[in-house]
Amino acid sequence: MSVFPESLLRSLDLCIKCGACNHACPIFISQERKEFLGPRAYLQIPRLVEEELEISVDFIEYAYECMMCGRCDDACPVGIQISRLILAIREALIDQGYVPPPKVASMPTKLSEEGLAFGSRELKAKWLPPDYQPGKGDTFFFSTCLSSEVPESAVAAFHLLKQFMDIETIGREELCCGAFLRLAGYKYLSEGALEECENQLSAFKIRKLVVLSRPCLDFIQKIGEINAIHVVDAIREAVEGGKLRFNGSKKEIRLGIIGYCDSYELNYSSEELVSQIKGVRVIDMPTWAACGAGSLLSFKAGSKGIRGHFLKILQLARDMKLNSLVFVDSSLYFIAREITRGKSKVRIYDVPQFLSKFL
Amino acid sequence: MKEGELIELLSGIVGAENVLTGEIELASYSYDASNIRGYPDVVVRPSNSEEIVEIMKIANETGTPITPRGSGTSIVGGSVPIKGGIVVDLLKMNNIIEIDEDNLLATVEAGVTVSELNNALEENIFFPIDPEVRGLSTIGGILAEDSACPLSTVYGTARNNALEIEVVLPDGKIAHLGTKAPSKQRHLMDFIIGSEGTLGIITKATVKLASKPEARHAFYVKMSDSSDAISIVQEAERRGIKISAFQAIYRDALKEIGEEISTDYIDFIGLIELRGDPLWLSTWVPKLREIITELDPVEMEELEDEDVKEYWRKVSVLYDVMKAKHMTGLSISFSIYRDKMRDLLQRVDQASMRLNLPSLTTFHPALGWIVATFLFVPEEKKESERAEKAVSFVGDGVSKLGGSIGFGTGIGVSMIEQYFKSSPDAVRLLELLKRALDPKNIMNPGKLIPLREM
Question: Do B136 and A53 touch (CB under 8 A)?
C-alpha cells in the first residue's frame, strides 16, 4: 500500500536533483554539508521509501529534521515549494497512523487535556501573579504555549509592553492556537485548535493581539478580525513613537542577532531596537546562522540537525568573541537555553529580555 | 572482511561521527543529478588527504569499491556507487588554502564549490569553469570529470585551468602532479584529470583564475535554422570577432514549453556573448549585429553587463523547467567539429522520432558541444530501453563523424558503452593504465572504463 499520496509523489518527482537547494539550506551548511540533512534528500527519499525501503523509526525522525526556513523554496530553479512538501510528508505519516517522536506524539493528548500543544496550564500560570485576573480592554498579550516553558520571556515581554500600553493577558486559561500542531503535521487538529482559540479571543472581545512567538503569530494571522503583531514589532513601534526609551550600557557589548531566513521585518525590528542601546555593537552574522518557523518543533521532535545547528551558532559566537547572542524570537531563545543550560560563555537572550536590562 | 569490521576501521580513521551507516543516510548517497542509482555500504567524510590515504589502504587491502563524491551534480552517474562499497564524501574538505591574486592562482581542497571559491575572491576575478552556472559543483568533481561550461569557448575545459593537483592513488600513496610553471609533468597530471575518479581521488588543486571582463554585451536571438548558428560563428571568426560564449536551446526542447514560446518558425534560441575591453566591444558589437541581422533572425534582443548575467540564469532555468516536466532523462554529451553539428542535431531529431521519446538539446556552436537528453518515464521499462537505444543511435553518429563522446560531462555510467564503441583504442590504453594503477579495480568501478575480467 502506498504511504504517500500520489499527488505528493508527483510533486517530489519534479525535482531535477540539481542540488541548488542543498547549498542554500542553513542546516546543510552548518552541519558540514551532509547530504541527508539537505532538502534534495527530502525530495528523493520518500520515493525510495515507497519503492525500496520501509517506513522506519529513522525515517519518521528524519521527517522532523527540517526547520521550514524556506530558503530552499527560493533556491529551487524549477519552483518546487520544498518546505510545503516536507510538511505534507509529516501529514501523510500522521494520516497513516505512524507515531511521530515522543514530544510530538504527546501533542494531541496535551491539546485535549490542557488546551496546549506542550507545557501545562499549571506552569503557564506561574509567570503571572497568583491572583492575576485579566481586566477589560481590547489589546491583549498572547503568551502562547511557550510561556509555560520560558516564563522569563513572557515576564520580560509583558513588563515591557506595560510600560507604554494598556494591555491584558488571558493567563492560565489561554488556549493553544494550533501552530505547533500544524508544523507537526496534525492538520485537522490544528485547524480545530485555531477555531477554539478564535472563539476564546472573540469572547474576550480582543481587537489587537501582541504575540510572544513567531510560529503562533503566523498562524493567528489567519484569523481575519484580529490585528496580530509580534512583541518585537510592538516594542519597535513604541520606541519609534517616542513612548519608550532605554538606557545605555556602561561596557561595550559585542552582540550577534540570530533571526529567521524568511522574516525580514522581525529581523530588522530586532536589530533596530538592540542597536539603539548605547554601547552595543551589532556584529554581522553569516547568512547560514539563521532559523525557521519550524525550528522549535523540530528541536522538540529530537532533531539532531537542529541541535547541531544551534551548537554551531554558539560555537561561532565564541569564535567571533561575542558577549551576547540575541534571538529575534522566544522560541529560538528557548532552544539555545535548553542546549546551553546556563553553561554558555556567551550570554543568550530574546529581544524583550535583552531590552529589559536597560529600562 | 565483515562489514562491521570495515566500519570500525573507518571510524578509527575519521571518527565515528564521520562514518554514516543509517538507512536514510545511505539512501541519500544513492543518487546524483543523473538517473543512475546505487546504494553504498558506508559513507565516510574525511577532513584531509591523510585520512583519505588511510581509507584507500583499507579499501585496497579488502578490495572494497570506493566512489568519490562532491556535490553530486553529475548528470552521467559519476558519483553514484553502483558497485556499493565506500562513498568518500569530500564536502567537508572545503578549505581555501591560498589565493594569489597577483598571479591569478588559487589552491583549494577538493570539496570547495565554485561559488565558495568565487565568494572568496576579489570582485574583479573569478574561476571560469562553472558547469551548471550555479556554482554548485566542487573543484574536485570538475577536475575529475574535466567539465565544460558555456565559457569554455574562451577558457577551455577544467583541464586547461588546472596547474597542480594532489591525488591519492589506489595504493594509498599521495602524488603531487603538475607545476605552476609550464612543465613536462603536465602530461601525467592530464592522465588523472578527466579520469572520473577511476585512477585516484583528487584531494587538492591549484587552479587558474581569470579577470572579469570590463564590459559584456549579448545578443538573445530566436532563429529559424540551426545552420545559422554555425554561420554566425564562422563569419565572426572570419571578421576577427571573439565570441566568449554561445549557448543555444534547440527546437526539440522548445516544443516542450510550447505554451510559452511559439515554435512555429524557430529552430533555436541562442544567447551569444561578447566580453572584454569596452574598446574592442565597440568595434565588435556592430559587426556581430550585422552578421546576425543578415541571417534574418525571427527575433533579436541586445543586452549589456548585468543584464547578460540575468539572461544566462534565465536560459538555464528554462532548460531546468523543461526537464522538470518529465520524470527523468538519459543524456549524451559530445563535441564535434562545428561543420558537422547540424548533422548531429538532425540525428537527435531522428532518434527522438523513431523511438518516440521527447528530447531536450542544448548546443554550443562556438565550442562544437552538444548535450542531448532523451526523456522518459522511469517506471516504463520499455521507455528506458528506448532511451538507451536513442543514445546509442546518436552515439554511433558521433563516432562516424569523428566526434568525442563524454565531452563536458564525463562518460560516467550513462555513456560507457558508447564510449567503448566510439574510442576502442583509447579505452584499451585506459584499461592498461587502470590495471597498472588499480589492479583490484577499487576506484569508482563501473565508470568510464568498461573493464572486462581482470
Answer: no
pLDDT, position A161: 96
pLDDT at B60: 96
Give the nearest chain B residue to A54 (CA atoms).
B23
CA distance B190 to chain A (A): 28
Which among A15, A20, A56 has the least Cβ separation from residue B136? A20
Kindly tell me if the per-residue pLDDT of B258 is higher than 90: no
Q: What is the mean pLDDT of chain B?
A: 91
Selected residues 78-137 of chain A with any CB under 8 Å from a CB in chain B: 78-80
Distance CA B39, CA B43 (A): 10
Q: Please name the residue of chain A whose CA is at the shortest distance from the CA of residue B131.
A: A18
Chain A / chain B CB contacts < 8 angstroms: 93
- A23 and B113 within 8 Å at the Cβ level: the answer is yes
Residue B167: pLDDT over 50: yes
Q: Does any CB of chain A come closer than 8 Å to the CB of residue B25?
A: yes
Hey, what CATH topology would domain B3-90 get? 3.30.43
Q: Does domain B215-416 have CATH number 3.40.605.10?
A: no
Whether A273 contacts A236, CB under 8 Å: yes
**Residue B375 Cα, gap to closest chain A Cα (Å):** 12
Closest CB from B92, B115, B324 relative to A32: B92
**pLDDT per position as a tens digit, A249-306:** 999 999 999 999 998 999 999 999 999 999 999 999 999 999 999 999 999 999 999 9
Q: Cβ–Cβ of A20/B134 closer than 8 Å? A: yes
* Cα–Cα distance for residue pair B114/B133, rounded to 1 Å: 9
User: Which chain A positions have a beta carbon within 8 Å of B22's beta carbon?
Assistant: 36, 58
Q: In this model, does residue B298 exceed pLDDT 70?
A: yes
Which residue in A has a C-alpha nearest to residue B26's C-alpha? A36
> Tens digit of pLDDT for each residue in B85-103?
999 999 999 999 999 999 9
Q: Which of A23, A32, A36 sits opposite B28 (nearest CB)?
A: A36
Name all domains of chain A by residue range, CATH numbers in brackets: 6-95 (1.10.1060.10), 104-238 (3.40.50), 245-356 (3.40.50.1860)
Check CB contact under 8 Å for B24 and A59: yes
Task: Report d(CA A240, CA B413) in Å as an integer.
Answer: 63
Q: What is the pLDDT of residues B365-407, one digit of tens each?
A: 999 999 999 988 777 778 889 999 999 999 999 999 999 999 9
Q: Is the pLDDT of residue B277 over 50?
A: yes
- Selecting from B24, B135, B316 the residue whose C-beta is nearest the C-beta of A62 gives B24
Judge whether A2 is closer than 8 Å to chain B, CB to CB.
Answer: no
Share of chain B above pLDDT 90, in %: 76
Interface confidence (ipTM) of the complex:
0.92
Cell 536513442 belongs to B390
Q: Does A57 touch chain B (CB under 8 A)?
A: no
Using a CB-CB cut-off of 8 Å, the residues of chain B touching A59 are 23-24
Q: With a cut of 50, list the residues of chain A below it in pLDDT.
A: none
Q: Which CATH number fits domain B93-211: 3.30.465.10, 3.10.410.10, 3.40.50.720, 3.90.550.10?
A: 3.30.465.10
- Give me the residue spans of the domains in chain B: 3-90, 93-211, 215-416
